[in-house]
Amino acid sequence: MGDSLSAGVLGGKLGTAVLKDIAEDGSMSFGFTAETDPLPLYPLTLLVGTPRPPTARRLLKDLSSAGIGRIIFCGTDLGEKSYLTSSLWVKEEYKSAILEGISQGKSTLLPEIVKLYSLYKAIGMIDNDCDKLALDNVSPDLPLRQYQPSGKESCLAIGPERGWSDRERQMLRDADFSICSMGERVLRTETACHMGLALIQAARKYI
Q: Are residues 163 and 140 in contact, defined by beta-carbon separation less than 8 angstroms?
């Protein structure tokens, strides 16, 4: 008894939990002392063409630990539609990945997670005063490293493993997304998410 560990209340403060009792059935009771507020989530949105469930699970965990405020998964023209009906989403298994992620990041704040079946609907969720960026190595307008923040928030759109269709590229342009590149190499969705968000965080001086 008396052992302590760092803990937090979901959506609330961080602090210290102290073991008070272990019952015969193995259940434990703790005392909790609230100490500090968690760091706020970054005003960043990742809009991503839904990848394979194992990849999506890793992204949910990693991006939650990094403090990203919102993650939108959507169906795309060239993406596999069945990914959106996997047990990760249907049985809400994604929630455990998020909890694991915020625990890793020593936070109690959950990012907003949205699942949609089309890019059109996903784009409709992005505010007009948000900086809108999309990665594409087929017909980019500028390198992502040249991004200079102007709005209070940023959204980065990343396609599925097979990339955006021509129709989706035009849809993004029509919605005022700047089409950006990170070089000529073709990257996996997971790699592009981490590299792209790191560049945006650096541009906003978050890291």
A: no
Beta carbons within 8 Å of 182's beta carbon, 6+ residues apart: 135, 137, 143, 144, 145, 192, 195, 196, 199
Q: pLDDT tens-digit profile of 74-97? A: 999 999 989 999 999 999 999 999
Number of Cβ within a 10 Å radius of residue 34: 13
Whole-structure pTM value: 0.92
Q: How far apart are CA 54 and CA 41, in angstroms?
A: 24
Token pair, residue 30, equals: 């703790």
Structure tokens at 99: 């909890």
| CATH H superfamily, domain 42-203 | SPOUT methyltransferase, trefoil knot domain (3.40.1280.10)
Q: Is the dihedral of CA 193, 100, 45, 88 positive or negative?
A: positive
